Amino acid sequence: MTNSGEDKMQFLNSAGNFSDLEGDLIAPNQSNSNFKPSTTLNMGSNQEIISTLDEPVSITISRDLKAVAYKLGHVFFPKQSTLLLKDWDLWGPLTLCVILSISLEGNYKVNSNAPEFASVFALISFGAIVVTINTKLLSGKISFFQSICVLGYCLLPLVIVAILNDLILFITGNASVISFGFRFILIVVSCFWSVFASTAFLAADTINLSDRKALATYPVFLFYFVISWLIILHTN
Amino acid sequence: MNNIQLSNDGSGQTHIFTSFPETHQDQPNYQNIDSEQTTSFLDENASTEKTYSIWQIEYYQKYFNINTTDFISRIIGSMVPSFGQNSLLNKIRPNPDLYGPFWITTTLICTIAIGGNIVSFIQNFGQNYTWQTDFHKVTSSAFTIVSYSVIIPAILYVIMRSRQARTEMEFIEILCIYGYSLAIYVPVSLLWLINVSLMQWILVIVAITLSGSVLFLTFWPAISQDQNRNIALSVMSVILILNALLGIGFMLFFFHYPSPGNKESITSSVAAITANNTRV
Lengths: 236, 280
Known about the structure:
The complex is a heterodimer. Chain A has helices at about 5-45, 50-55, 55-75, 85, 90-105, 115-135, 145-155, 155-170, 175-200, 215-235. By secondary structure, chain A is mainly alpha-helical. Chain A has 10 helices and no strands. Chain A folds into 2 domains: about 1-55; about 65-235, no CATH class. Helices cover about 75% and strands about 0% of the residues of chain A. Chain B has a domain at about 100-280. Chain B has 13 helices and no strands. Chain B has helices at about 1-10, 10-20, 25, 30-50, 70-80, 90, 100-125, 135-165, 170-180, 185-190, 195-225, 230-255, 265-280. The chains are: A mainly alpha, B mainly alpha.
């Protein structure tokens, strides 16, 4: 017997729809008359729509590289922009993850327990997936790949420090206390920078975590902490 | 269905109901229509909650429905044994979460593996021996902690389910309590880095006492419902003994080996452990 209520609701809705329809009915007519020539012109010119097929490969690659580099710049200046969330890509995270895995790869000549390429790669990717699922479970409004993209791009400070770490080790050797202290400070700073940059995106007010920001931030911290631990343990 | 139409007709009644909502609980016979209406709304809410299937991520959001202050109070409740209103069971009872158990066990795996490596790193620093990270520590600590915090709650649940007519606790609650009871070992495993044998033993005894008493206070009221007193006592003592073994095992296995992967040092460390045992 909810009919009476539903009828009322339908009537209200339809009344609302009529005003919308009026607008819609007028708009297509105008657009049809006014914009038809322009759309056919666009189709004829072939510049805007099929442009990526005709251009040289170098331009395509350079444009994508520029997009990746532009996003990497945002990691160093996390000014609460939503660029990494808006158009996410996985090229940047993949590249950074591969670079980090190569730089942390152990020495096979010594029979060691150091991590291999595959284990570092798997640790980073599974860690990012677990942190993302955690954010989703805390009912954060973010899509799966957006979060993976942010976590991957925010590896950049750690990647730079991992390469610096290799250079310092190459110059000074393993057993120097001063170089160890210098590496330690560098890694701590980069770890906190990574956490800071990623929380600027992941714990922003738009994600709607309200009183759970600390709960969502802690796994991110743990993720970057374990990676920076791997970097500081890396010896030549 | 009928109720809504009736309430639409008698709009004055619903007005009374909304203006004095507290009278509704006290006077069930006052307006049957209103009470029926509220139950129908409750049913609708329940049906919308059940629409998620097990494969959807929203299904599991009810196990992560805590905020930061809840989480902190639960962690404190897992470290400080207390009775009645402040007990850990009362804190987790409305909605047991899986956030705490998952991230506490993950943190503990990390701190124990990292701490074990730091201990061997400090002892090998500056020597000619090329020190390597021992990633088997991560594997073994992960295996121990995960099996402790999943298998034991499962066994305990089966025992309680089969021995008692009315189950006092759900599986998710036991899992939650076991996860939180590991929280005390996170700060303790960081303090174990101070490589003084007496200090380490004092810390392990404090940790075992605190987490063991929390486990006792939460599980004893449920387990003591068992008709056979001996079985109840033995189950409780097995829980406490396993907890003590876990704490002592962490300390001896991860924080007493001077250098992993070196056979001579392992034999010497075994000698050191036996010496420690005899000292204590």
